[in-house]
């Protein structure tokens, strides 16, 4: 996994042994998404993914502590998604709004997933998102490939209390991934 970071966005790429079409299905099909994506140690109960421009995204979770909503800005089947990514919390945490760009690219012997998350207020705010994306993409890799990534360039810091891959945030700060 590669990570590029600047003040307001973070980018990730992950290689998979499956074609981009299979990767796209795992990212967008409700039943597959429910099997691999568990942010903040929660499980999806309802997924609405209207895969068209202006189509709605609604993800609801078992614990009812938050939900994710959004709207597709661009949908190129099996190639690219751009959408708003809004976290609505039922507790005292402030709601958060981002833009995600997800690329699905075929390559020899598999595919590459590219993720860009925009709208972060700065580097410190990006840290829990980095770790959460790392966890989510590893979970997706295990789901699709049956094994964890061997080419992971993002490592946990030594000596950290490792709740989400190295950054020592509170569980409610881990926004994207989770196991």
UniProtKB/TrEMBL annotation:
InterPro entries: ASHA1/2-like_C, START-like_dom_sf. Pfam families: AHSA1 (PF08327). Residues 143-179 are annotated as: Disordered. SUPFAM superfamilies: Bet v1-like. Residues 18-144 form the Activator of Hsp90 ATPase homologue 1/2-like C-terminal domain. Gene3D superfamilies: 3.30.530.20. Belongs to the AHA1 family. This is SRPBCC domain-containing protein. It comes from Dyadobacter subterraneus.
């Amino acid at each position: 996994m590669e990570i590029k970071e600047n003040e307001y966005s973070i980018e990730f790429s992950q290689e998979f042994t499956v074609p981009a079409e299979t990767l796209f299905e795992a990212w967008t099909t409700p039943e597959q998404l429910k099997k691999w994506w568990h942010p903040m140690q929660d499980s999806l109960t309802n997924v609405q993914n209207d895969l068209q421009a202006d189509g709605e995204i609604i993800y609801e979770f078992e614990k009812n502590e938050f939900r994710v909503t959004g709207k597709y800005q661009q949908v190129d089947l099996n190639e690219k998604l751009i959408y708003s990514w809004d976290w609505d919390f039922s507790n005292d945490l402030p709601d958060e709004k981002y833009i995600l760009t997800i690329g699905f690219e075929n390559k020899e012997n598999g595919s590459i997933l590219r993720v860009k998350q925009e709208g972060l207020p700065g580097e410190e705010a990006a840290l829990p998102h980095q770790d959460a994306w790392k966890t989510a993409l590893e979970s997706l890799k295990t789901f699709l490939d049956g094994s964890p990534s061997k080419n992971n360039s993002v490592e946990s810091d030594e000596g950290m209390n490792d709740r989400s891959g190295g950054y020592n945030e509170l569980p409610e700060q881990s926004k994207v991934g989770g196991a």
